[in-house]
Amino acid sequence: MDTEKCFHCGLDVVKQDEIIFDEKLFCCNGCKTVYEIFSTNNMMSYYDFEKSPGARPLEGNQKYGFLDNEKIVEKLLDFKEGTTQIVSLQIPHIHCSSCIWILENLHRLQKNITASQVNFHEKKVRITYNSEAISLKAIVTLLQSIGYEPYISLDNYETKKITTDRSLTYKLGVAFFCFGNIMLLSFPEYFDVNEFWLDHYKNFFRWLIFALSLPSFFYSATDYYVIAYKSIKSKTMNIEIPIALGIVVMFVRSTFDIVSGHGQGFFDSLTGLIFFMLLGKMFQIKTYSFLSFERDYKSYFPVAVTRLTNDGGEDAVPIHEINKGDRLLIRNQELIPTDGILISENGSIDYSFVTGESIPVTKKSGDKLFAGGRQSGSVIEMEVLNSVSQSYLTQLWSNAVFQKKVDQKHKTITNTISHYFTPALLLISFLGFGYWIFISTTIAFNVFTAVLIVACPCALALTAPFTLGNVLRILGKKKFYLKNAIVIEQLAKVNTIVFDKTGTITTSKKAKISYEGKAMDSDQKLWIKNTLRASNHPLSRILYDTLEENQRIETDSFEEIPNKGIVAKIKGHRIKIGSSAFVQNDKEDTALQTSVHIEIDESYIGKFIFNNEYREGLSELFSELSKDYEIKVLSGDNEGESAILEALLPKGTELVFNQKPEQKLDFIKQLQLQGKNVMMVGDGLNDAGALAQSNVGISVSENVNVFSPACDAILDAGEFYKISRFLKMSKKAMLTIKLSFVLSLLYNVVGLSFAVTGNLLPLVAAIIMPLSTITIISFVTIMSNLFARKLKLDDKKEQV
What angle do CA 456, 461, 466 make, to 5 degrees? Predict the structure, then answer.
């Protein structure tokens, strides 16, 4: 069927459903309305930034009724003084310059909004408004109406303002100030300028340099002293020991040179070393603050829920005020916040987030409902059995075995090398001093100082932070967000990959439907399509959206029977749609696939089989990964799609079905007991335990700003097919580090050979040291960028 694009949102528009306004094509009244709003308010330049930049607005609903509760609103506010209020709202749809433009021009749509400012990286908008003239609920409704629906969760409601630790930033700033000024003051002596005033004030400048070095030495470098002290105390050898010793020796030697009048010392190299070390540390820990890797159930739950009052009314209450015995109203697509009993006649609950089972479960009056399920279909009522904190979902999340082990010991490559480098360096420096002390005290002191300065492992310590930091940046641009730099080292060690099925290798956005049975004519297809239109059952909605569009006709009668199916009459014909037992199917349906059967005029026609739609490039990805890794697939679903998976995936791929969350965790644990280094790729809460237990846990998310379980990395679902490239990039990062270590050690070997023989003055050593640092930083940056280009991380079609 011919389709065109909606002028506002860019979605396909079916010819018979098109809406034309102002000579422009729209897919629905919502998009047309947004266009009218922008047109009326002289905001048409919104469409100049990007072609079809808008989001299709959702139909109106009552999901933000809880914002009528002042207690809840106060918890969400950033600031409140008189009639001025400020609120920060998460807008997941922010994606381009037009989004920023419209959100920062909200005052043109609503005059009582004073200002609005977008934080693009965190996908938030900060809105200042007059609370006397407009409510927060009205603002949220306005955002929803133009396609920028805010995401407000229980996590927003409880989040306390956290004071950011800026100590490293201050130390880096002080180090840079000291380093820059000392270098400036050192130039005359570097070039041995003979000028009356410079010679006259030489001592003054030297003591000024000494004074400028004190903040850097006593404040900026304190972390290295503390770590070195703790390392010595615990009898371990890490790289901070020679760094701290080198800093102290350079400071003492430089102070001695100034006091004795021998020169200005090496304060420029000292402060430069401290600055570069702190810069590397900052680069290493600077990660993606707009993502949360340690989320819990609160970031998934709504702020409030609708409670039914004794007089039959409705009241939006904070979720933690729900008590046992309360009656709740759960609308279509709303989450069930706590365990309870279904009061309504029937309901259809999607538990895919909790169990991994993709097909909704049909419940009838009196059945128990568990927290974390999502109601699909018409509104239901339920009676609360437990408070939110005592629900099954909360207990599952709070289970100790489901938490990511923060004390897992991982020995970084830097620590591994420093284990040998540190004692070797100290041994060489003391042996050199011990040899020369019997010949010349001056030479002995010069040798000891030169060895520690030229071999100070700053380049060694910086190579990993700058390499891994740059790789973090590269992967982040490709929508693969790592928790920290250590994850890259862990990725490089992986030899076994375990994939969850539902929502991970399958996409939750669509399902593949096939038909088996007698050929249907156009009239029969028309009757089925119109029968499904009145049903709210999830399978009915999926099938309805899949069937080809045709004319709409009225049904003479319609009845939906819970747990069975639909009966309707259209133009005198009786149509039955439902389970195999519901229709007159001569052959009992024993297949494990989810299916919907069709009967017309008491004659069995056939069935529609629902299969998950697998992610694009899945077969190629698994084929590539199977060359270097052992691949396994876990699923909470039944074995209905085992044949499809076996055909799609490489031979030997282990498939395990009907896995509960606890079983997935135990499966990972058993692999690790066999000595395997495991990477788990999953999505919902049902994978949280396995993600926590694995050596590397990756959460695949359709929206990285909404919910993901505690993990080591978050992967945008659109980049799923690049997993093999990302793994190769982690190995290339480690190769880059090893090559830079070799380069750094070559510097040290050459420098030490001159230093221990007394042929290297401390001044020359102080010049060589920063040069080696700059060389190493440039090398690792260039190499990591070259590897990223070679692996075609930007390519969106060709598989590696």
Answer: 135
Contacts 24+ apart (CB under 8 A), 174-177: 174/215, 174/216, 174/219, 174/220, 175/216, 175/220, 175/221, 175/271, 175/274, 175/275, 175/278, 176/275, 177/215
- Rg, the chain, Cα only: 33
Q: What whole-number distance in Å separates Cα of residue 112 and Cα of residue 83?
A: 11
For 210, the token pair is 């000494």
Cβ-contact 748, 697 below 8 angstroms: no
DSSP state of 153: B
Residue 589 has pLDDT above 60, yes or no: no
Round to whole Å and give the CA distance between 594 and 641.
10
SS3 assignment for 747-787: HHHHHHHHHCCCCCCHHHHHHHHHHHHHHHHHHHHHHHHHH
- Cα angle 660-661-664, degrees, rounded to a multiple of 5: 85
**Which residues, in sequence order, are bridge partners of residue 638?**
none
| Measured distance CA(540)–CA(533) in Å, rounded | 8
2: CB partners within 8 A, 6+ apart: 15
Nearest to 580 by CA among 566, 598, 568: 598
Most confident residue range from 113-122, 186-195, 722-731, 779-788: 722-731
Q: How many CB atoms lie within 10 A of CB 722?
A: 27
Dihedral over Cα of 207, 213, 218, 224: its sign: negative
Distance in Å from the first CA to the final CA of the chain? 35
Rounded CA separation 685/139 (Å): 32
C-alpha span between 64 and 138 (Å, rounded)? 10
Q: How far apart are CA 18 and CA 369, in angstroms?
A: 41
Q: What is the DSSP string of 297-324?
A: GGGTSBSEEEEE-TTS-EEEEEGGG--T
Read off the DSSP letter of residue 218: I
Closest C-alpha among 320, 315, 273, 323 to residue 301:
320
* Among 590, 592, 535, 544, residue whose Cα is nearest residue 565: 535
- 3-state DSSP assignment of residue 586: coil
Q: What is the pLDDT of residues 88-135, one digit of tens each?
A: 888 877 766 777 777 888 888 888 898 888 887 678 888 989 888 898
As a residue count, the chain comes to 800
- Among candidate residues 378, 364, 365, the one with its CA nearest the CA of residue 332: 378
Return the DSSP state at 550.
Answer: -
What are 534's two structure tokens? 């009145």
713/708 Cα distance (integer angstroms) = 10
User: Cβ(386)–Cβ(339) under 8 Å?
Assistant: yes
Question: Beta 346-350 vs 327-330: how paired, if at all?
Answer: unpaired
Please tell me the distance from the alpha carbon of residue 30 to that of residue 47, in angstroms, as a whole number. 16
Rounded Cα gap, residues 212 and 619, in angstroms:
62
Burial of 119 (0-12, 13-18, 19+ CB in 10 A): middle
Distances (CA, A) of 552 to 29, 556, 557, 570, 608: 19, 13, 15, 11, 21
**Closest C-alpha among 475, 479, 482, 471 to residue 717:** 479
Which ranges of 534-656 would DSSP assign to H, the alpha helix?
538-546, 618-625, 642-648
Looking at the chain, the number of H-run helices and the number of E-run strands are 27, 30
d(CA 592, CA 655): 16
| Overall average pLDDT of the 453-470 stretch | 68
pLDDT of amino acid 391: 63
Q: Which of 672, 628, 668, 670 has its CA nearest to residue 650?
A: 628
- Per the CB < 8 A criterion, the answer to whether 751 and 768 are in contact is yes
* Residue 571, C-beta contacts closer than 8 angstroms, at least 6 positions apart: 527, 553, 556
The set of residues, in sequence order, having a beta carbon less than 8 Å from that of 10 and lying 6+ positions away, is 51, 52, 53, 54
Half-sphere exposure of 778 (CA within 13 A, CB side): 6
- Can you give the pTM of this predicted structure? 0.58
Q: Which amino acid is at 227?
A: I
Distance CA 274, CA 279 (A): 9
